[in-house]
Amino acid sequence: MQTTTQDTPAFIKVRGLKKSYSETIQVLKGLDLDMYPGDRIVVIGPSGGGKSTLLRCVMGLENIDEGTIEVDGKPYIKGQGRTEKNAIDHTIQKQVGMVFQHYTLFPHLTILQNLTLAPVKSRGIPRSQAEEKARGLLKRLGLADKADAQPSQLSGGQKQRVAIARALMLSPELMLFDEVTSALDPELVNEVESVMMQLADQHMPMMIVTHDMWFAKNIATRVVFCAGGVVVEDGTPEQIFSNPKEQRTRDFLEKILHTENAA
Amino acid sequence: MSYDIDFFYTLKGIDTLMEGLLVTLQLSLTSIVIGVSLGFVVALMVMSPSKLLSWPATSFIEIFRCTPALIQIVWIFYCVPMLFNVFLDPIVMGVLALSLNLIAFNAEAYRAAIQAIPKAQLDASVALGLNKIQTNVYVVLPQAIRLALPVLVTNGISIFQQSALVAIVAIEDLMYMGKMLSTETYRPIETFTVVALIYFAIALPAMYISSQLEKRLKVA
Ligand SMILES: Nc1ncnc2c1ncn2[C@@H]1O[C@H](COP(=O)(O)OP(=O)(O)O)[C@@H](O)[C@H]1O
Ligand SMILES: [Mg+2]
């Protein structure tokens, strides 16, 4: 199932990842995944298949039951049983950034303050330096005039671009995107996706969950089909979209492409 | 009606009423300060994952929200000294009774405010590397205070009015002094009208300020 050569060491190595939300709700059932340097992984799969959970585990937002996640060969998260706390390396966690489906800008802060809060309060970066970086980023994302606006004054697309900028403030080594355009009106999807394409051009390692198959084809170096809490199939975009090996992948793509054409 | 309205004696006794008002303000303001601060602490206890903290806090809130304030005052005034063999200054007892009531209502306001903050913001805070304390101080608290403020003000005004109940246990507040004056002067209509107007003159502007505040905060 591995598509990249085994001799390059993996950047992210997920092994035997199990996650349940209660004794009865087991979501990830021993998931394995390797992400190599230069990879941009798009995770696709049916709703409820565990895509969000996978990303949340990599972000360190969920306590995993079993399994390990390594980054650059170093242990990052290790499950120690469902009711026991994970062993987690917070230094590595700080190198991971995430953008969510729902708007998560802090509504009581201006756009600029949203961007500088974490760098100033948690990383100890001088405020003036953080503000300069923030203004630079906002400018790059076409939001220069929004620095002093309140989040409520922004469109959904602008909010998500700010959320991306806020994550980039911390210079992450890996960016996670969980359906960041799903809550947007169709005409706003493009402005967010093009910012993500910009990041791709700058070789930002990314793990993306999306239902936009056209976007997936364009941005991914690898596509991972995740269903029932495991990786069912994993390959290049061409391979997965034109010639899927697994029946479940084929069924899923048929269904989703069919509804997309119908819509 | 054989009763001639005459405000002369009531207005002559206005000093007595002002003395009572002072006690009323003292009772209310002290209770408000206690209620606003300890209410937040109790809210945090209620939301704590530890049952040892949440259970007593929740029971406290339910008891004080679900019994009449009058019973609370009378109970604390007569039962606390008998049960614990402590005899406190009546004003202190009054503050105790009113504060406990207000803490319960304010804790509920804070709890609702904290719960109204979308959980996704807490996930985002973790993703941004903020620790628990930083998240509470910079993300949760500023929003919780804003969201709860109109209710806190309303609760404060309400405790100012409820404070009239302490007259029943002979604390010499505005209500008590009014009752006394009306008996002395045989002028209940005039006296209780003036007393009502004094409560009204303080509560109305406070109410107005609170609704302005609410409008302001909604925009922000
Ligand atoms: N916090 C939670 N508590 C309980 N069940 C959850 C929680 N989050 C997700 N689930 C369940 O886990 C399953 C996988 O969810 P998710 O990872 O969000 O899937 P996907 O993103 O692929 O749609 C779903 O059945 C969902 O209902
Ligand atoms: Mg999801």
UniProtKB/TrEMBL annotation, chain A:
Key word RNA-binding present: no
Predominant subcellular localization, coarse grouping: membrane
Pfam family, one: ABC_tran
Keyword match Transport: yes
Any one of the GO CC terms: plasma membrane
Alphabetically ordered keywords of this record: Amino-acid transport, ATP-binding, Cell membrane, Membrane, Nucleotide-binding, Transport
Its membrane topology: Peripheral membrane protein
Domain named ABC transporter: residues: 12-253
Family membership: Belongs to the ABC transporter superfamily.
PANTHER family recorded: AMINO ACID IMPORT ATP-BINDING PROTEIN (PTHR43166), GLUTAMATE_ASPARTATE IMPORT ATP-BINDING PROTEIN GLTL (PTHR43166:SF9)
Protein name: Amino acid ABC transporter ATP-binding protein (PAAT family)
Species in which this protein is naturally found: Marinomonas communis
TrEMBL record, chain B:
Principal localisation: membrane
Domain spans labelled ABC transmembrane type-1: 21-210
A molecular function GO annotation: transmembrane transporter activity
Topology in membrane: Multi-pass membrane protein
One GO-annotated biological process of the protein: amino acid transport
Keyword set includes Transmembrane helix: yes
Keywords of this entry: Amino-acid transport, Cell membrane, Membrane, Transmembrane, Transmembrane helix, Transport
Bilayer-crossing regions: 20-47, 84-105, 147-171, 191-209
Compartmental location: Cell inner membrane; Cell membrane
GO cellular component terms attached to this protein's record: ATP-binding cassette (ABC) transporter complex
Highest taxon, organism lineage: Bacteria
UniProt-listed PANTHER family: GLUTAMINE TRANSPORT SYSTEM PERMEASE PROTEIN GLNP, MEMBRANE COMPONENT OF AMINO ACID ABC TRANSPORTER
Job description of the protein: Part of the binding-protein-dependent transport system for glutamine; probably responsible for the translocation of the substrate across the membrane.
Similarity comment text for this entry: Belongs to the binding-protein-dependent transport system permease family. HisMQ subfamily.
Protein's recorded name: Amino acid ABC transporter membrane protein 1 (PAAT family)
